[in-house]
Amino acid sequence: MSTNKKENKNQIKIREFDEEKLGDEIGKVIQKNDLENYKKGKVGFCSYSDASAAIGGGRAHFLWFHSYHDLYQFLADYFVVLAPGRYDLDHEAVFKKVVEIVQQLAAGETSKDKAISQINDAAKHFSQIEWVGEIEDLTGGSSEFAKKIREYFYENIEEPIQNKVSNKDFPRFVKALEEYGI
Fold it and tell me: Domains of the chain: which residue ranges?
């Protein structure tokens, strides 16, 4: 019985693709999961619009969730409308491919890194995921993205770059993430 509960817990619910409805909903979902609503211990991701800079592409933003499952459900539901792709692309086909990859990720059938790469390939000209993890990964992790974020933070406050964001600097760090990629 517990096996079924575990499987159901990791299962991604599949929504019908209704681009207009999803587009209408996403603003509220983003507001609920932005950095102003960040609570320590949540997981998040950073993505950017994969469009020309002339039409707003390249702007990055972070969103935060209570669990990886909530994050994965968001990706399945809204990733394709987070930064709508070119009009000449089959948006529904991209949506279905992203859902398929996220389902495999949530079920543990693929690694996070492999799934992110596959999602980015499928969502080319929509959004691209730059990072997925916990804020502690950013404040003290060794990934290139974490180092880049700390470098960005310390350069903006004009202090020497640190290997770990201190508890004293943490509130300013979270605030700086709001402005990252603008």
Answer: 17-135
Distance separating alpha carbons of residues 98 and 79, to the nearest angstrom = 8
Q: Give yes or no for a contact between 63 and 74, defined as CB atoms under 8 angstroms apart.
A: yes
**Total residues found in the chain within this entry:** 182
| Cβ-contact 33, 65 below 8 angstroms | yes
Output the tens digit of pLDDT for each of the chain's 182 residues.
333 334 446 789 999 999 999 989 988 888 887 766 666 668 999 999 886 665 556 678 889 898 999 999 999 999 999 887 888 999 999 999 999 999 999 999 999 999 999 999 999 999 999 999 998 999 999 999 999 999 999 998 888 888 999 999 998 998 888 888 76
Q: What's the number of CA atoms in the CB half-sphere (13 Å) around residue 117? A: 5
Q: How far apart are CA 87 and CA 70, in angstroms?
A: 29
Answer whether 23's CB lies under 8 Å from 84's CB: yes
By the 8 A CB rule, do 29 and 82 touch? no
The identity of residue 74, as a single letter, is F
